[in-house]
Structures are given as C-alpha cells and as structure tokens.
Amino acid sequence: MNLLTLFKLICSLSFLVWSCSSAAIDPTHLSPPWPLTTDPVLPTQTQPFPHAKPQSSGGVYASGKHNEDVSNKILIALIVSSTLLAAIVLFLSCFWICKRRNFDKSNTDDEENLEPAKGISLGPILGKVGSLRTGSRKGSVTVIEYKLLVAATNNFGEDNVLGGGGGGRVYKARFSDQNLAAVKKLQGGPEAAREFENEVSCLSKINHQNVISLLGYCIHGDTRFLVYEMMHNGSLESQLQGPSRGSTLTWHLRMRVALDVARGLEYLHERCNPPVIHRDIKSSNILIDSNFNAKLSDFGLAVANGIQNNKSIKLSGTLGYVAPEYLVDGKLTDKSDVYAFGVVLLELLTGRKAVESVAPSQCQSIVSWAMPQLANRSKLPGIVDPVIRNMMDLKHLYQVAAVAVLCVQPEPSYRPLITDVLHSFIPLVPVELGGSLRLPDPPQSI
Ligand SMILES: Nc1ncnc2c1ncn2[C@@H]1O[C@H](COP(=O)(O)OP(=O)(O)OP(=O)(O)O)[C@@H](O)[C@H]1O
Ligand SMILES: *[C@@H]1O[C@H](CO)[C@@H](O)[C@H](O)[C@H]1NC(C)=O
Ligand SMILES: *[C@@H]1O[C@H](CO)[C@@H](O)[C@H](O)[C@H]1NC(C)=O
Ligand SMILES: CC(=O)N[C@H]1CO[C@H](CO)[C@@H](O)[C@@H]1O
Ligand SMILES: [Mg+2]
Questions:
Q1: Which one of 306, 381, 396, 399 has the lowest number of neighbouring Cβ atoms within 10 Å?
Q2: Which of 379, 383, 398, 405 to mutate to test ligand 3, by most ligand atoms within 8 A of the CB atom?
Q3: 280 counts as catalytic
Q4: If you average pLDDT over residues 6-11, what whole number do you get?
C-alpha cells in the first residue's frame, strides 16, 4: 500500500467521523462550545467545513425533554467518533510498525550481502561463525588473515592440535570466547594445492546440515589453511577407536550417525547439480558436533559426477574403503561412496577398524572378515561391538546387517542407491535424534 492511498483512506475516514457526528447532532441544537472543534487531535475537521463553527456558536438553546434528546445524541456522536479515532490511530501505528520492520529487515539484508566483500578482517569471520551457527545463510567463503590464525591458534601450538592426517595437522582456533574453529594446515606441492582449490570451490557451494561448513581460508607462501566450523566431539574414528572405545556411542547414536551420513551423501548424489561423488568417505572424515550431529568433511577428492570414468582422474581414496571396481578399473560412480558407507556401517556395528593387521605385514579388511558372519542370523550378534552387544532390538540389527551386506557388494549395480539406504535408517532412529522411531515408555537410554 502506498502513502497516497493511505492518505485518501484517512481523509475519507475523518469525513465519515464528521458526517456521522453532524448527522447525529443537528448543529443548530448544540450548546457551545462545539465539542469536536476543541479536540486538538482532529484539528483538520473544522477546515473542510468552516461554516460549522459559526453555526454552532450561534445556535439556539433548547430546553426540557428536547435537551435530554440532544445530550443523548452528543453522547452517541462522541462514542462513535472516538471509536473511529481510536481505529485510525491503531491502524496508523500498525502501518508504521510494519513499515519499520520491513525497513530494518531490508537494511540487515543489505549488510549481510555486503559482508563477504569486506573480507580479511576479524569482523566477517566472527559474524559468519555466528550466522552459521543458526544455520541460516548460504555462505560464501571469507579470506582470513594469516596473523589472525597465528593469534587464534596460539602460534599453531602443540596444545591446540586436534588431530593430523595425510594432508596436515588440524588446530583448534579461538577467535573469541564464543567463536571456536578448526584450522587445517596444508603443506606441500601441487597435489595439496589442487585438493585445496577443490575443497574450497566444492564446500563454498554447499550448505547442508550434514556437510561441514567452511568458514574461510588463507594462503601464506606455500602453506594453505582451511578454516572449518569446530566439531566438538571429533571424528567418528576417534569416538570408536579412541580412549572411550565407543562406549559413549549407544546403538541409537550409532544409527543416528549412519542416518546423518546417508543424509549428507544423499544431498551430494541426488540434490547437487552436477551430482558430487565424495570419494573419501571414512570414519575419520565423519565429524561429530556437540549436539551429536554427524557431518561429512574432507572434500579435497570430491568430483562432479559428470567427469566420472575419466582415466586421467588420479586413483585415490583410502585402503579399506575403496570399492573393488574403482581399485581395479578406476570406474567411479556414486556407488563407490555407497561401498565406503557400507564399510563405515560395519565399523559402527562391530567397533573394528576398516583394516586390521592380523599378522606382521598382513592386513584384513573388515568386509572380508564380516561378510561370512553377516548373512547368518545366529552368528550376527557375536560380531557386534561388545560395548553395545545385546542392547538393541534384534530385528533392527538384522535390518542394519542386511543394508551393510548390500552396500559392500562387489558388483556396484547390486548396491542400493543412497536414497534407499537413507529411508531404511529413518525408522531405526528415535524421534528425538531426527528419525521416526517412537520409543516405548519408559524410554530406553538412547
Ligand atoms: N572441524 C573439525 N573439528 C574438530 N576436529 C577436527 C575437525 N577437522 C578435523 N578434525 C580432527 O582432526 C583429525 C585429522 O583430520 P584430517 O582430515 O587432517 O585427517 P584424517 O581424516 O585422519 O586423514 P586424511 O588426511 O586422509 O583425511 C580428524 O580425525 C579429527 O579428529
Ligand atoms: C578428464 O580430466 C582432465 C583433467 O582432470 C581434463 O583435462 C579432461 O578434459 C577430462 N576429460 C573428459 C572427457 O572429461
Ligand atoms: C549359521 O551359523 C551356525 C552356527 O555357527 C551354523 O550351525 C549354521 O550352519 C550356519 N547357517 C548357515 C546357513 O550358514
Ligand atoms: C560422547 C561425547 O564425547 N559426548 C560429548 C560431545 O560434546 C559435548 C559438548 O562438548 C560433551 O558434553 C559430550 O560429553
Ligand atoms: Mg580427514
């Protein structure tokens, strides 16, 4: 609504007030002073009808019964006009509040849009950390000053190390009391540079609850830094193989991790355009936040599905998780991620590592170890991680084992799509953890 129509509305309303009151009260019968003209709130009412006042002030005094009638009319007129007045005031203030709100909103939108352009200072990253926590905005990635990283990580001190893998170490960074982040330091040649570029371009386009958020990056000489949201409960691998040995991971939490990973992969495979293949799904690349949300990380190897089967894509991945057809022929599809998901599922079920060393210089993959026992219902409970053994519904265990068997099929076309996997996990995860399972009263521990 524009201001002109508003003005017209007010004018017609005030005219209505005036004509109502003059209809109820014959001005010639009024005793002075004319009540409405003394009202300072509606000074304009005398303007369009200047004759009203002289008429009223020169009015004839009535008496007796007729006088009572007149004061009744005045009362009615007063009630009607003050009601209308109140309505107008209310309407105007509503309109004003709405206008203000819209104005404020568009203002903050502008600020948000400008934010990434400002770059390079502490302000944007802190704002970004804050806004990503609410999960609202599709982030573009900020360049972060090197000296800021040095200060936040205590000069990359030993005490700040969160972990380390093939690429480099990961440090805890504290930008302020509230704002923690994880900084991955990548050193090395063109290989690392390519993975860095790949990860930045891939993650800056993705905003999903089960994919890690990239807050920013930094290039300092030969060294590159990726700054991620902090994942307080570390990786799935450290949860399973670390000091707690998976004892904090109940059956339902494990099912939730599987569901979250499937959700992240479903997003990459089915809802990204072009579809993305992660290529490095493994328990150390599944990170867990303080609410026990699981998210996918390490997109350095991720490729768009369009360039699959390109022989010049270097064969890479992690032993134990790589699908056989990819290892043998370099054939790469979304089913390679499904295979790796199956391996992670076996880790969740059994608590074992993807590759165990059974003898000096001899390894056994979890797939070849578990396969013969997964298909036999009487053997299955025996291979479940001892810390959760006998703590789940057996029917659920059979179902999860069946999904795992399908995912690690050597023939890719026998493996399910991640969408099908995702839908089979939803009924196994309690409602409070993001699934659809309603636990009986009293609630079992989750
Ligand atoms: N955003 C994060 N928040 C908290 N901890 C993290 C974060 N990113 C990584 N880590 C920790 O750092 C460890 C090392 O991660 P990194 O990705 O460098 O190595 P990796 O996954 O073990 O092996 P690879 O180099 O093959 O990926 C992880 O296992 C995890 O414990
Ligand atoms: C295969 O990948 C290389 C580099 O990764 C690229 O130059 C080439 O065009 C790709 N070929 C096809 C058919 O996509
Ligand atoms: C399943 O395992 C049990 C006990 O180990 C064994 O007796 C049985 O023959 C197995 N069944 C099949 C179908 O392999
Ligand atoms: C199982 C586990 O490690 N849980 C921890 C996850 O992180 C939160 C917040 O840091 C801790 O309170 C939990 O104990
Ligand atoms: Mg990793």
A1: 306
A2: 379
A3: yes
A4: 52
